[in-house]
Specification:
About 35% of the residues lie in helices and about 30% in strands. The protein is α+β, with helices and mostly antiparallel strands. It has one domain (about 1-75): RimP-like superfamily, N-terminal (GMP Synthetase, Chain A, domain 3). It is globular.
């Protein structure tokens, strides 16, 4: 699934210096959630996540076959820890 999402969105979000690290479906409280995890070589601030989310939402809406039977789309950044 990660490969499909990456191929759809990475070119459109590369100018933000972010890329798709993972994409998977989870179930929480009975809802199916499509998760897209973003990563970068640098820390991703909230504004960048918001901007990437707008781009990704539009692309995912155009390719809604991936969202079949999905209740919610969740886009967030990978947490950076200390090295």
């Amino acid at each position: 699934m990660r490969e499909q999402v990456s191929s759809l969105v990475n070119d459109s979000i590369k100018e933000l210096n972010v890329f798709v690290e993972d994409a998977f479906v989870s179930t929480e409280e009975g809802k199916k959630i499509f998760n897209i995890v973003l990563d970068s070589e640098e820390v991703i601030d909230l504004n960048k996540v918001t901007e990437a989310s707008r781009i990704i939402n539009k692309i995912m809406d155009e390719n809604n076959s991936l969202l079949k039977d999905i209740d919610e789309l969740d886009i967030y950044s990978k947490e950076k820890g200390e090295k």
